[in-house]
Structures are given as structure tokens and as C-alpha cells.
Amino acid sequence: MATSSHLDLAAHDVATRSMPQRIAIVRAAFALIWAAALALAVGDKVPTTNSDIPVGIALLLASYPLIDVISSIVGSRFAETRVLRANAAVSSLAVVALAVTSFGSDAGATLAAFGAWAAASGLILLGIAIHRRRTEGRQLPLIVSGGLSTIAGVSFLAASGNDKAHLGMIAGYMALGAALFIVSAVRGWSQGGEVA
Question: Which residues of 133-157 are buried (b: 16+ CB within 10 A; e: fewer)?
């Protein structure tokens, strides 16, 4: 016969197992909202390489890595503590770098800072996904997301020096990342396990 404490432990175990999916869905929702806000803020006035960045766009760019900071800190309570805390630290540095470049420099420097962060956080996500794949299987959406983030980050870095580099491509990058987090969460729920 199950006691009240056994039922409480079972309920806690189910909630803990579903937490990565919940984090992925919330993270995806914020990324989609952020991407839409950036697209609306930029409109047809896309800042290019040597352009100053309007304050609203600068705030959006500087604040985006906070999604990673918060989701990594919350996620570190459930899995990969050291790696997720490292990702939170990298993303915190990105907030500072993006604030400095977007408020005090031009679009090219901001694109370079965003690219460096996207590449670094993509490598961290790719490492987590590969580790999970070895121990738990699946993980294809996270592997794709980490790989694409790394590639996009490198391409943002390369584009930052071009005369026609612009920040508009960042919104598409974030929307795709959000879609991959949703796929990952849905696959995790459908397979009854961790984020797939």
C-alpha cells in the first residue's frame, strides 16, 4: 500500500522529469515573442554595419541572452548542473557585451557580439545534446539546434565586417531556434522522457 509520502515522492518525480520540457516550451515562447518584437522594432529600418542602433532594438538585443541565463539556471536544478551554469555565465557575459556594443557602438560590432555568443552557447547546447544522446538516446532536435546556433554564430561573426551586414537575420535565427525547442519538448513528452 502506498503511503502519502510515497505518493508525494512519485508526484515530485513526475514533475521533475517533465521540467526540461516545460523549460523548453517557456524558452521557445519567449524566443518567439522576442523575435516578433525585434522584427516589429526593426521594421523596414534595418540597421546595417556602420549604423547606430535605435534604443528599442538595443534593449531587445541586449536582453535576449537573459532567456538563456534564466533557463540554464532553472534547468541546472534538474540536470547537467555544471554545464548549464557555465552556459548561464557565458550568456550573462553576452548580455553585458551586447549592451556595450548595441548602446555604444554600431550594428557590425553588435552582430559580432551576438555571433560570438550564439557560437559559444550553440557549442554548449551541442555538447549537452551529444552527452544526453549517449546516455539516453534521441536528442536530434537539440543536436540540430546546437549545430545551427554554432554555424549561425560563426556566420554572424563573418558578416559583421561586411558593408551590408544587418541585424534583421537575428530574428529568423531565434524563431528557428524556438521551433526546434518546441519540437524537442513535444518529442520528450510523447516519448515519456527527457527533452528529446
Answer: eeeeebbebbbbbbbbbbebbebbb
- Cα torsion angle, 142, 147, 153, 155, sign: negative
Q: Which residues pair with 48 in a beta bridge?
A: 166
Helix then strand then coil, % of the chain, to nearest 5: 80, 0, 20
Distances 170 to 9, 59, 108, 131, 183 between C-alpha atoms, Å = 43, 14, 13, 28, 20
pLDDT, tens digit (0-9, with 9 covering 90-100), for 118-172: 999 999 989 888 988 888 777 787 788 889 999 999 999 998 888 777 777 787 8
Q: Is residue 46 packed enough to be buried (19+ CB in 10 Å), middle (13-18) or exposed (0-12)?
A: middle
Angle at 116 between CA 100 and CA 96, to 5 degrees: 25
pLDDT tens readout for residues 91-122: 999 999 999 998 888 888 889 999 999 999 99
* Alpha carbon separation from 72 to 7, 80, 148, 194 (Å, rounded): 29, 9, 19, 15
Pick from 61, 38, 179: nearest CA to 110: 61
